[in-house]
Amino acid sequence: MDRFYRKIVDYTLSYQIEIKYKFTNFLILSDKKLDKKKILREIKRIYKEIESYTLKKPLFVSSLKPLKEENPPLPLKELFKYSQKTGLGPLAGIAGFFSKRIAEFIKDRFNLENLIIENGGDIFLKRNRDSRILIYAGDSPFSMRMGFKLEKGEYGIATSSKSVGHSLSFGNTDVATVISENPVFSDFYATYFGNIIKNEKDIKEALKIARKTKEIKGLIVILKDKIGIYGVEIFKIDNKN
Q: What is the pLDDT of residues 70-126, one digit of tens each?
């Protein structure tokens, strides 16, 4: 997938690196210079954890449903936890899992006030100022014409889409974006909402679920010319200017 959005976004941070390894493709931005080799080494280490477990449990990487595992390895516990909660396979949150692990690695080693990790369009965000995030929704009339605001803080932002990108989705959304404090949670629930929303009625049901789920700070759903919003302030772009 062409990551065109990396060329048009103003991240306003001084240091930027890109790291590609196997299925991961990171853009990492910060207010301090980072060591790319050390971060790549950590990514490889995480891959080894996953690959080692997969040798014992091959279904871990292919199952679309939760797997029974009484004592999963500690580093992988969140994948099993949210897999069970959403009814999805354990790898439904793998992008968020990598983002969270790498964010923790970087924060442990650098005294950062600002850190952004983008991995496949999903975002880990730690900012000491408010942020404005533009929404790309394919051919929807809302695409690149609106976005949402977040107060300063730390967030995991994940998006599932039937029409954009290569992710598997059984629904019809152009965008199902979940904002929480945990990138793993957001990744799973973005896929969950993306799967269950097939029509306008489903958007209303998704918003009801979001209101009852305390971890969800925000939900944005776009299905062609229909939109549902919970928990975030929206801004609009005037394309005439």
A: 888 999 999 999 999 999 999 999 999 999 999 999 999 988 999 999 998 899 999
* Whether pLDDT at 241 is above 50: no
Give the other-Cβ count within 10 Å of 170's Cβ: 13
Q: What backbone phi and psi angles, to 5 degrees, belong to 9?
A: -95, 135
Alpha-carbon gap, residue 172 to 209, rounded angstroms: 18
Closest of 163, 192, 160, 197 to residue 176, by C-alpha? 160
Q: Say if residues 128 and 113 touch (Cβ distance below 8 Å).
A: yes
SS3 content of the chain, % helix, strand, coil (to 5): 35, 25, 35
The total number of residues shown for the chain amounts to: 241
| Residues 213, 72: Cα–Cα separation, whole Å | 25
Q: How far is CA 227 from CA 57, 61, 64, 220, 237, in A?
A: 40, 33, 27, 7, 16
List phi, psi (to 5°) of 53. -70, -35
Q: Could you give the CA distance from residue 56 to residue 92 in angstroms, rounded to a whole number? A: 19
Lookup result for tokens 């803080």 = 153
Q: What is the DSSP string of 92-139?
A: GGHHHHHHHHHHHHHHHHS--S-EEEEETTEEEEEESS-EEEE---TT
As assigned by CATH, the class of the 12-236 domain is: alpha beta
How far is CA 229 from its chain centroid? Answer: 17
The residue extents of the domains of the chain are 12-236
Q: Hey, what are 177's tokens?
A: 């974006």
Total Cβ atoms within 10 A of residue 181: 13
H or E segment at 208? helix 200-212
